Amino acid sequence: MYFGKSYWKTQEQGIQKEWLLANGIGGFSSGTIIGMNARRYHGLLVASLTPPVERHLILSQISERVVLDGEEYYLHSFRTHDFAGHGEYHLEAFHLNNGLPEFHYRIGSTTIKKRICLRYGMNQVVIVYNISNPGKKGIIQLMPLVNFRNYHYLSFHQYMTFTADADGRKIEITPYDMDTKISIDCSEGKVFIKNQCFFHNMDYYYEHERGLNGTEDHFIPGFYEIGLDAGDEKTITVVCSIVDPITSLDGESIINDEIKRQKALLNGFPEDQFLRMLVSAADKFIVYRRSTNSKSVIAGYPWFTDWGRDTMIALPGLTLTTGRYDDARNILRTFASYEKDGLLPNVFPDGTGDPAYNTVDASLWFFEAVYKYYLYTNDIDFIDNHLLKTMLNIINSYKNGTLFNIRMEKDCLISAGNSETQLTWMDAKAGNWVVTPRHGKAVEINALWYNALMVMAEIMRLTERNGDEFSALAAKVKKAFIEQFWNERGNCLFDVVGDHEKDDKMRPNQIIAVSLSFPVLDGTMARCVVDSVHEHLYTSMGLLSLSRSDPQYRGIYAGDQFARDGAYHQGTVWTWLLGRFITAYARVYKDKDNIKKQLESFYLPFHDHLRDACIGSISEIFDGNEPLIPRGCFAQAWSVAEILRSYVEDYMPLLN
Is 607 left (phi over 0), alpha (psi -120 to 50) or beta? Predict the structure, then answer.
């Protein structure tokens, strides 16, 4: 994927496209196509010290200075409060080549190609420079900007205590008198150590936009100087590592190994560029978790960790459509082992301690993930031996009542929470303000409840057990669901049914009732829901979280945290819901003459989006107002997963 100078006529334009690498253990590398850090989360190495959490910024950037015949040139783009470094002036092209970022610089006839690669399964970044210098004699200096701070925070030089020593060309950096050491090595050149040297006031545009402090300092341990003679063709490799020893400075070989790994992920997939890009994007979210010794799912980059709800929703798209069945088994078995009182973890802690269980829907999405696993693998033995007990515990706990006031009411529907708890996926809370109070009987929770009972009945049948009690209860749930949730006036579903009132806000949660493996709605009612959602909530990038006609609608997700939380589920567009909508649409209009063409139109905007925001991935959310600016996490697991799942399950069968 190629981008040229028209994409960075200004630095403000240049930072609108970002790139991301992930190392499979929670660490990552990210930045912009002009090489300028615009977030506190940007950096060449953000390491995960306790995979996939305890993430720390280690190497922010390498600042390159080139001297040719006495003239100085700087390749590093940056901003401080009173100065801008315009390395992008020398940038001719940015490529995302085999999933890896490449920066192509030119100074006169001298060309420099810079490539970045993470070593998979290691906290180690490799930067490779290929230099062609046909005419002028000179040098290139490579100055690493180092840090050691939690990736959510910022560092200031007066509080930074670093020491640096050189062993040959290897620089060993000790932060804060710790036992931990950061290692930087270079394949050639001379090393010069600096004492108490800092890069001051690096400024991050997106942090200011989010209403946060966005200026920090970095430690400069020294620099490498490499001579350039006329006619030189040089390859220079710089490696930065923490925890893992540096075992190779053969950057070309390391890059080739990563390219081979990424290409292997695509073996067996058709030559469908859109599909293959989504499969590659999915790989970045599947990570190893040390505390459970198993695989997990990072909910989103750059700031989320692994969440139970997100994992269950994303699992079919990330692991099943991609053929990663071992990963699916691993994740399902792990979450099943952490079931407590019928609940699955909402989130694992960043450090030690017990998971949090404050979610009503993670356990119910588990049933959908399990059933999808069966449909893809036919592996009923795994479900019988490792998951069935957990499934029964969840059903019984929801029937009899469990934590957070989650319980089955007399009408067989599930009620959950109170005015102070946020248990559904619409869980934004700004201070003491519960932005979207949805305690009581939420529409998607009861659609998931019906689906769980039907899945349970089917699994019991497949394991040669009697599941009649589950199908009988499901029939009661379906009857009560229609009686309680059908909104005759709106030709759609109520969002929440309380003890004394029904919430008729037009929200997208109702689409879940038509899109699960066992939909609680069918026929005319199902079609009415799809049509209503299409009419009032559909946008090209996802579904609005609240109709634009609602007085509480907020169409711009921007400002400080209070403003952003207030808009999060009050109009902001969510992409993951579009996958659910497409499935529902394909189901109710499966006999429509132009169904293939209609589904194509739903995916077409993402062909463009994969070249925007985080290149090769899909953003978490978008503004509700046009032009639907991407916001939130620049790469979100369930956004990628649900577009991928629906593409494979709903669209690709129409091609045969």
Answer: alpha
